[in-house]
Amino acid sequence: MKRISVSLLGLLFCSCLFANTLPASTAMSTCTGKDVCSINAEALTNQATTVAPQTIHIQLTAKQPTTEIRMPANATTGYAWQLKAYDSTLLEIKRVDYIVSSQLIGAGGQEVWRITAKPGVFSKPVTTQVTLIYARSWEKNQAPAESKTIVVAIR
Hints:
Layout: E1 16-17, E2 27-28, E3 37-40, E4 54-60, E5 66-73, E6 79-85, E7 91-100, E8 109-117, E9 126-136, E10 146-154
């Protein structure tokens, strides 16, 4: 499996794009063939509470219909990434794994989310969004600690 990691530490707002046309200030990685691409979003965490939600841009094609996104997480704190909104007519999304970064007590890790375009959606180009929030499931009236918007271009 081909792994692509995007590392942009220190930026308050950045994008990871799998696209053909990019603004000059963005990072680009390309996946080819039938490999599942993987984006390591650990470098995309909010650095300040006043920052707007982080945005990740991906492109899915008939030859590359699936992408995995690795989100930094720490299950020992009670926080987890939760799927808040997406278009279920276009995408299938699921949390597929939690990878611990260390065997130390309280160590964080990464949640792995898989985004797959449904068969038959490649007939015309379309763009949709996925929203994930990082929150504790039992804190219903609290604002999430973080959120990510994933812009998905289906081509």
